[in-house]
Amino acid sequence: MHKINYKYGEVIKLNINEVTLVNDTFSIELTYFTHKRPYIGGATKVMTSLTISKDNEYEEIFLSEHGVEGKSKSEDGLSKAERFSSVLWKGYKFQLEKIDYNEYIEIKIFKKE
Question: The whole model's pTM is what?
């Protein structure tokens, strides 16, 4: 288990199958990647699965990156909010920032008051 003292809003790198304990509050593990096979010129989607544990409760959440088949990020016309998903979970917001397929993701975590 990898333990970190995390400052909310900073980018954190999560490696696949590595459990990270965040501020002694909850643990998070990147468990797998999957993707949608698009039609030519259609929407693309890479999805990641995260298992989060807090107070002996476990939940799976999913974060996704969207795009357009055959177009680069600079050409597809998507904003950052359209490209990267976010999820609310028990007073926290998890925002996807980057994916390196089958290796790691980068996310930001925000604590909602």
Answer: 0.90
